[in-house]
Amino acid sequence: MEMKKKKGYEKSIHHQATKEGEKGALCSDCHGSHEIKPADYPNSFVYKVYIFYRRVVTAIIKFIRFIKRTFMEKLLLKKG
After folding, report:
1. Do 7 and 1 touch, CB atoms closer than 8 A?
2. Is the separation of the CB atoms in 35 and 27 below 8 Å?
3. Cβ 31 vs Cβ 48: under 8 Å
4. Fewest beta carbons less than 10 Å away: which of 15, 32, 48, 79?
């Protein structure tokens, strides 16, 4: 396993479960047993999930920024 992939797996909840003696998913459980590709490759088994979560995270970040901006504007209007 390449070092970058190994480090990514070692940070995952799957590895933590395995390390603690629980059943944890292996790379091949999601990526297939042949030709494991990064999640951001269009022909990767997990590409659709990767894109979905990337879009969700981006939307959440934008929403949080909007809330912060709106809150700060209202706070400043109250002070001014």
Report:
1. no
2. no
3. no
4. 79
Among 5-9, 34-38, 41-45, 75-79, whose mean pLDDT is lowest? 5-9
| The residue type at 9 | Y
Rg (C-alpha) for the chain, rounded Å, is 20
- At 25, list the tokens: 């998913």
What is d(CA 74, CA 27) in angstroms, rounded to the nearest whole number?
48
Q: What is the DSSP letter of 33?
A: S
How far apart are the two ends of the chain, measured CA to CA in Å?
Answer: 59
30 burial type by CB count under 10 A (0-12 exposed, 13-18 middle, 19+ buried):
middle
Task: Report d(CA 34, CA 20) in Å as an integer.
Answer: 27
Residue 14's identity, in one-letter code, is: H
